[in-house]
Amino acid sequence: MIEIRRVSKSFQGEKAVDGLSLTVHKGAIYGLLGSNGAGKTTLLKTLAGIYRPEEGTVKIGGQPVFESTQVKQRVIFMPDSPYFFPQASLKSMAAYYRSIYPGWSDKRYKELGSAFRLDTGRKLSRFSKGMQRQAAFWLALSCTPDVLIMDEPIDGLDPVMRRQIKNLLFQEVAQRELTVLISSHNLREIEDLCDHVGIMHDGRMLVEKDLDDLKADTHKVQVAFRDERHASALESKLQILHQEHRGSVNLYIVKGDRERISQAVHVYEPYVFDLLPLTLEEIFIYEMGDAGYDAQPILL
Ligand SMILES: Nc1ncnc2c1ncn2[C@@H]1O[C@H](COP(=O)(O)OP(=O)(O)OP(=O)(O)O)[C@@H](O)[C@H]1O
């Protein structure tokens, strides 16, 4: 289990992560979303033991990460641009990883060869961006880590390879209870992959939930009433994240239980009423709007 408690980290006196707490259970796939500069990379690097938290604690399996080489050897951090030694090939990087990570498995490395089909003797610097990503995944999974931390991992991968990597991750989670943390702006990928999501803004966690609960908790409501006063009466009863009026139809993004929203609306006898689920992208945009990070109305 990953336990992050009231962690802060600053750069030049500015807090990049500000008193943030987060728990990720073993075998979970956790998606970290957030605005640009929200502090996601800083948080992930603190979790990987690259940064020491200035305040608070970061523990994996009950052990503080920064201080423990043993824990760090069981954690792989994949940065947004893969790093390999100059002149290195997959073969030589594999030899390096084997010497650093006690969990390295030659058997797994061989098995994964059929998934990635990259030339292990060729210089990695000559690989395309997507091929370099594949190489980074191949090396990371061959280390059989307990925790895999990935910063924008899907960028540059073709759809077949994305599917391939998704399947490999699901397999590792199911068979070995690998714990995965992914930071991404690609909300479709997160929606597909993750069971939990957290949305960060200004160094803090805005929302943190089971993805299914998060979706069950935010809805798009379209209503029209014969008497407009009913709309304002209804608005005072709902927790509205966003609203738009289009002619006689009122559109609301509402937080709360579906049944209770439905009951509240029916009291005012609408002649139009639709209660629709939101995509993760819509939830993200409205949560951000609620936090004062506004976008222009985007509902079509
Ligand atoms: N090495 C650094 N030196 C100085 N400031 C930094 C450093 N790394 C991050 N920051 C600052 O910390 C804040 C959080 O940055 P971070 O990279 O963690 O955000 P992020 O959520 O990953 O952003 P993005 O989605 O744009 O990648 C930003 O204000 C950034 O300028």
UniProtKB/TrEMBL annotation:
Q: Which Pfam families match?
A: ABC_tran
Q: Where is the ABC transporter domain?
A: 2-227
Q: Which SMART domains match?
A: AAA
Cite the entry's keywords alphabetically. Answer: ATP-binding, Nucleotide-binding, Transport
* Entry keyword Nucleotide-binding: yes
Q: SUPFAM superfamilies, from UniProt? A: P-loop containing nucleoside triphosphate hydrolases
Read off the CDD domains from this record.
ABC_DR_subfamily_A (cd03230)
Any GO molecular function: ATP binding
- Cite the PROSITE patterns for this sequence: ABC_TRANSPORTER_2 (PS50893)
* The name this protein goes by in its record: ABC transporter
Annotated organism of origin: Paenibacillus donghaensis
